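Long-time lurker, first post. I've been practising inverse folding by hand and with some scripts of my own, and I keep getting stuck on stretches where the structure tokens seem ambiguous. Below is the full token string for one chain I'm working on. Before anyone asks, I'm not after the true native sequence, just a reasonable design that respects the backbone. If someone could post their per-position residues I'd love to compare against what I wrote down in my notebook.
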């Protein structure tokens, strides 16, 4: 499971578990390959089966 956050009209993806696994393979050095990246950059890696919307705006 991951979280998508819309900031100023751009959707950003936050998936801490995948970056933790990547870091574990690289000597526990965090790289942030996917954490906080624009969804448009990662669409081929993430395909949602369901979406849960918590709030449309504040």
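-- Answer (accepted) --
I ran through it position by position. Result:
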């Amino acid at each position: 499971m991951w979280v998508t956050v819309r900031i100023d009209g751009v959707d950003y993806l936050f998936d801490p578990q995948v970056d933790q696994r990547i870091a574990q393979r690289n000597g526990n050095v965090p790289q942030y390959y996917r954490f906080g990246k624009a969804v448009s950059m990662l669409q081929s890696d993430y395909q949602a089966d369901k979406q849960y919307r918590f709030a449309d705006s504040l």
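A couple of notes from the structure itself: The mean pLDDT is 77. The helical segments are 16-25, 39-42. Happy to go over any region you disagree with.
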